[in-house]
Amino acid sequence: MRPFRDIPIERKLLVAILATTALALLLSGLSFLVLDTVWFRQQLRRDLSALARIIAENSTAAVAFDDAKSAGETLTALRERPHVLAACIYRLDGSVLASYSPAGQTCPPPRAFGGLVLRGGRIEVFQTIALKDRPVGHLALLYDLGEIAERLRLYGLLVLAVLLISGAIAVRSSVRLRERIVAPIEELARDAAHVAETRDYTIRARKQSRDELGVLVESFNAMLFSIQSRDDDLRKALADREQALAQAKNARDQLEMITDTMASAVTRCGRDHRLIWASRQYSRWLNLPPGQIAGQPLAGVIGENAFAALRPFIDRVLAGERVEYEVEADFKTIGPRWIRGTYVPTRAANGEVDGWVAELSDITALKRAQADVVEINRQLQRLNSSLARSNEDLERFAYVASHDLQEPLRIVTTYSQLLIRTYGRELRGEAAAFIDNIVDGARRMQTLLADLLAYTGISAEIERPVENVDLNAALETAKSHLKAAIAESGAQIASDPLPSARGHEGHFVSLLQNLIGNAIKYRSADPPRIRIAAGRQGGEMRIEVSDNGIGIAPEYHQKIFVPFKRLHGRKIPGSGIGLAICQRVVERYGGRIWVESQVGAGSKFIFTLPEAAPPAREAASAGEAPHERAAL
Ligand code: ADP
Question: Cα–Cα 20 to 30 A to 215, which of 40, 198, 417, 558?
């Protein structure tokens, strides 16, 4: 059975009304009953005493005369009182004079004095019969109290009937009460349940009265209104929070995407040296699962040794300084590594440094490669200096040989010519031709030796200080050396005004002479047209020597600068050293030389040279050494 507090209000009301009505009726019925019983008993006592006196007075004569018959008749009058069970008139000696007993009940024994005695649900009434105040006998009555029980039963039935009628009335009135009280409460309860179920706080309960229920409905509606506005605020705050969360997630995703694509690892640490965040690159690099990094002390993640190596930089960044460093540290998980790091301090809202962001690159391989490069460089330098030494030896040898060989060659030539002059007529047949060949070979060898001397002689100039050389003057000298060839070929030479260059004049004469000489030598069927143009390019001077000669196939553009490399055999005289000399001169003074040409389309030799130095006074004021030497 459900406890009272859990049953519906409607039933509660009904039970309360019924219980109250029943209780009131019961109490009033009970008090009425008690009162009536008490009153009735008193009344009965008085009545029985009066009855006993009347019978005693009426039977005085009969007792005095011992007239049993008339005493019996007096007692017979008690027939009208059905609750009198027995009545006896006793003589003074206690013997029965007359008795009345309709139901065969025994009279109580006589008593010397009158009065009432209650015994076993009956009343015994005693009365002395006196004649002129002298007792002549006794009267005893036995009265049944069943009348009281009957009255009680009657009253009980009455109360029950009233109870039933009032209960029915209470049930009827509870229906009306339900309409007035319970229905609005039920409606309110339904509204509350609906709100709880749907969380729709826009619902409002209907106010049906101005009593406490009306106040309750108003309070309920006010509560709904405040919940609704708080709900709206909450929803807005929730939406804002979700948006902020989405933005934060987006920013985080982007950060991770960016840091994932970076070659270097990125971390963020707090003032307490704990890692707040680390890019995936960092966990991959340290060979640690990402979950074992964030929130951990840096010393625990990288090991005490590595932490000690980084500590000085950490102290500096926490002092607010941006720190860039390269250091070798022994990491707990990956061993000794060279790292290049940049630490940037991060600041809290109050401006105080609350940690730092680190960008870290593992430069171990780079450092090893650098060490290898340094070692290779050292070896190359050793090799270079030994090559330079043997080159120098070779050049010195070539220089000395080409110089010293000229003398015996001159003797061969001179004596061959002397032989022809002296014995020319006597020489028969092929002998003269042989001697001509000797002279020709000796001359070619002389040219070769002279060119070789010029080539190796460039190095010999190494000790002489360089000077500003007017290339216009050098060009004029070159042209004068080539006067015969120019005249013979009908060559036309046009030139821009040329700048000055730092170096030795003889070298620049040789450079221009070789280029112009080749333009004449390797001419086409047309008379040579040679143009010398000058300009500037990227802080250098650029000089071009173009001709309308036979041109050079692209595959030989590099090879023709190699000493003794020739493309035309003996048809056109030459030693194959001219362009090698040009290259050597240009490169010795810090420039480059190359050719642009096609077969049959002429050639353009281009060389660059550094801009000539400013005049001596300016150079001195710029701190330049007064006796600068060629970079040979
Ligand atoms: P050479 O003594 O043979 O002229 P160079 O070193 O001066 O030696 O030239 C090398 C070769 O380059 C020449 O044999 C020639 O074939 C080619 N050469 C040089 N200059 C020209 C030019 N202006 N036109 C065509 N070919 C050239």
Answer: 198
